[in-house]
Specification:
Layout lengths: L20 H14 L12 H8 L3 H13 L3 E4 L3 E4 L21 H35 L6
Antiparallel strand pairs: 1-2
Length: 146
């Protein structure tokens, strides 16, 4: 328990050990969006700001941004940077849809959210089916180790 672990203070141990820095950056930004500190259409902090704030390399910051974009939290605007995406289910109030940034009409957005929720429900069902099959295979071997 030497001083070598001190730089890890402030990180919660996750199930798989210490979260990687890009995961910490992504989670910090998600939390700011969820808490309303960053709102839909707001510019995300620049790469330079995040590198300073987290003492991270540019590659680490880029990985965090890629993750947020894949998860739908952020969008890129060429030449302008990254911005908080309009996540309708995350916005507690409909006012966000009135902004000049809102490209999709509310009806199209609602339909899109419904389609996503249907797809998600199907995916959850498939995962449950697969998990059941895996468990059946594992227990079917006659030896229930564990």
């Amino acid at each position: 328990m030497g001083p070598a672990r001190h730089h890890l203070r402030g990180r919660r141990p996750a199930g798989s050990g210490v979260p990687l820095t890009f995961e910490v950056i992504a989670e910090t930004l998600r939390e700011r969006i969820r808490s309303g500190g960053l709102r839909p259409g707001d510019a995300l902090p620049t790469q330079a700001v995040l590198m300073r704030e987290f003492g991270a390399s540019s590659l680490t910051v880029q990985k965090a941004m890629v993750l947020l974009k894949q998860e739908g939290w952020a969008v890129s605007r060429p030449g302008k940077g990254a911005f908080v995406a309009h996540r309708d289910h995350a916005a507690g109030d409909a006012d966000d849809l009135d902004g000049p940034e809102a490209t999709a009409p509310a009806t199209g957005t609602a339909a899109r959210v419904e389609a996503l929720e249907r797809a998600l429900a199907e995916a959850v069902q498939q995962i449950a089916d697969l998990r059941g099959r895996v468990e059946a295979l594992e227990s079917g071997g006659g030896e229930r180790g564990r």
